[in-house]
Amino acid sequence: MARLVARPIDEVKSRHRSVGMCALAIENVQSYPRPPLLDRVAEMLRLVIGGAVVAETAEGWRVCETHHPPTYYFPPGAIAEGLLQPVAGRSFCEWKGAAIYFDLAWGDLRLRRAAWAYPAPTPGFRAIAGHVAFYVSDQVQGFVGEVQARPQPGGFYGGWVTPNLTGTIKGSPGTEGW
User: Fold this and answer.
1) Within a 10 A sphere around the Cβ of 157, how many other Cβ atoms?
2) Whole-number Cα distances in Å, 121 to 25, 79, 129, 178
3) CB contact at 8 A, 147 and 90
4) Residues 6 or more apart in contact with residue 87 via CB below 8 angstroms
5) Domain boundaries, the chain
6) Taking the model in full, what pTM does it have?
7) What is the pLDDT of residues 124-133, one digit of tens each?
8) Can you spell out the DSSP letters for the chain?
9) 55: closest CA among 39, 71, 72?
10) Is 7-166 a domain of CATH 3.40.50.970?
């Protein structure tokens, strides 16, 4: 499968501006289901590091779980070659199964365990097998359509917070235990 070729974000923004912007529907994170929902993403997903688009897809998925902002998954072919560096260690999600982790390496930047994937997820999440989710941060910008996401509070969960989300988002002090 062909890999994305990274390019400057300004080139991408001007191309998307001519097509028009996409507004995100208002969603309350408290109404997301548990167990979580796997849903196709209608908007273009984009990941930017140092002004370069390093991942972009119109074929993304999102996982929506009660009190969490959506976590977005990119197919492997939508990610620039060399960005993902596999690292040791795994975690386990009761819904999706065993996750593996990646460092992100781009130019002189290296971010530890900044992305993850489920190589062999549980049956309800097979569609995201091998797809990669990313933590957004000051150094890694994530976009849903033209909307830039903020990281989910707390540093543990990897959801992308966008302005259309309402309700109490898990991760802030006092919410970690629910």
Assistant:
1) 18
2) 28, 20, 6, 23
3) no
4) 101, 102, 103, 112, 113
5) 7-166
6) 0.89
7) 999 999 999 9
8) -PPPPPEEHHHHHHHHHHH---PPPPEEGGGS-SSPEEEE--SPEEEEETTEEEEEESS-EEEE-TTS--EEEE-GGGB-TT-EEEEEEEEEETTTEEEEEEEEEETTEEEEEEEEEBSS--GGGGGGBT-EEE---SSEEEEETTEEPEEPTTSSS--EE-TTEESPPBTBTT-TT-
9) 72
10) no
Tokens of 56: 């972009």
Per-residue pLDDT of the chain (178 residues; tens, 9 = 90+): 456 666 676 655 544 443 344 589 999 999 999 999 999 999 999 999 999 999 999 999 999 999 999 999 999 999 999 999 999 999 999 999 999 999 999 999 999 999 999 999 999 999 999 999 999 999 999 999 999 999 999 888 899 999 999 999 998 888 766 6
For residue 119, give the nearest of 86, 70, 143, 83 by alpha carbon. Answer: 86
